[in-house]
## 1
Amino acid sequence: MKTDGPHGPAGSNPVLSANSIVCLFRVLWSLLLYTMFSICSHRQFQIVTLINIFGVVTQVSKIMATIRTVNTQTFPLILAVDRGGRPAEWVNWRQAVGHYMAGDVMWTVGDPAAVVRGGTNRLGVRSKVDLHPVIAVAGADAIRFEDYTIPLNNKNLFARDGVCLYCGEKYAKGDLSRDHVIPVGQGGVDTWENVVTACKPCNHRKACQTPAQAGMELLALPYAPSHIEGLILANRNILVDQAAFLSLQIPNARKRQLL
Ligand SMILES: [Zn+2]
């Protein structure tokens, strides 16, 4: 792939540059007119100066709008895998372009999910990089999958279970809680294997008892997410090709909860 280097999202920089140059000239022109206006109070100078100041304000607002557009453009995260297809990490579009530019991308999966355009070369050709949903990156092999631990927090826990594991109902995040299957008061610990998502009514009903003591049944056994499941938990905007790729590597029983 021949490119001139990454310069950001498609179509953003030329517009920004053109607006900036026009704005700079307008500011200089307005300063010149203001200086002349200061030494000559002719009415025509007053009008022309006011018109130019209005033009500068308009130009600045255009630049700000362009910057806001660039900043709010969202690109999907790209799934980087090792040469054997083991998922390694999510990378943003800048990191992905870096891998493409360095020639580290060995193979890809899926149709391009985004296009990043760069500068224009001397022949007038604008560079572009197609970002695929899944890229195999040389050097990703060094990641030590077995050492990776998914942080236990409510966000990850609620994402792991998806529903209250006692009544099976879906709730808004604000109505969910972390329940210790073996209560802390009875020696339970705060680990992935001893916590489940519970709605507040179920948690209240269970109180400081085990499910058996409370006469409640768990709909699924809690588990510590693997590295791959952690990747799924970390990105809730997974593309179809990425979901299909990741789902091949997790147990069937867990797919329904995560994907
Ligand atoms: Zn419930």
## 2
Amino acid sequence: MKLLPVVTAALVALVSSSAFADGAKLFAEKTCSACHGKDGKKTLMPDYPKIAGQNVKYIEKQMADIKSGARANGNAAAMKGVMVIVSDAEIKEIADFVSKMK
Ligand code: HEC
């Protein structure tokens, strides 16, 4: 259990450093790209949505709703887990980045 403080410190460093990261970095770090594709189009599963170039407000709202549980349709549960590590400020940054993806 001696490892625990080390792991905790590393996690805190990771989380606090990413709070200042830009949208592109967050998109990779928060594993969005694993499911939605590096380009926001080549999705992991055929029933996962392409999100590149979507309207910024819509992206923000869907992320917030999946996080809160207000949106629990379809495959929303697949994404809900990761939203625990995405803050509201990070949602805004990522949404801005995704909306500008070509
Ligand atoms: C484990 C896979 C997974 C991860 C990781 C994931 N998502 Fe999703 N996401 C999904 C799935 C599946 C849906 C569709 C849910 C449904 O069927 O309603 C979705 C839905 C969305 C939507 C709404 C799309 C629409 O057209 O309504 C947005 C925006 C989105 N994700 C962005 C993100 C971002 C940004 C991240 C990173 C913080 C992320 N997702 C991480 C699987 C994932």
